[in-house]
Design goal:
86 residues, mainly alpha, 5 helices, 64% helix
Length: 86
């Protein structure tokens, strides 16, 4: 029998090292966030990069902020993953 978990939070924690409580905290903070506000989006992007312990260049941050504030957010995980790889 496999020891692998089907819980998405377990997978996130193993892959990115982000705990479920951190995920809930971020989710709660963006519930009523204004995603057309550049400062709000920039703060969120930086927070998520820091949580995931991933370096974020100014260029990539700008690209993500522009996409989100321009309402050009990918609707599936594969597209989102491609945006982060650019």
């Amino acid at each position: 029998m496999s020891n692998k978990s089907n819980n998405p939070f377990d997978k996130i924690q193993q892959g990115a090292g982000i705990s479920p409580s951190e995920i809930y905290k971020v989710a709660d903070s963006v519930k009523n966030a204004n995603f057309s506000d550049e400062k709000t989006v920039r703060r969120l992007v930086r927070q998520l990069a820091k949580m995931a312990n991933k370096p974020l260049s100014k260029e990539k941050e700008d690209k993500l902020v522009k996409s989100i504030t321009g309402n050009k957010v990918p609707t599936d995980l594969n597209s989102l993953n491609q945006l982060f790889k650019k």
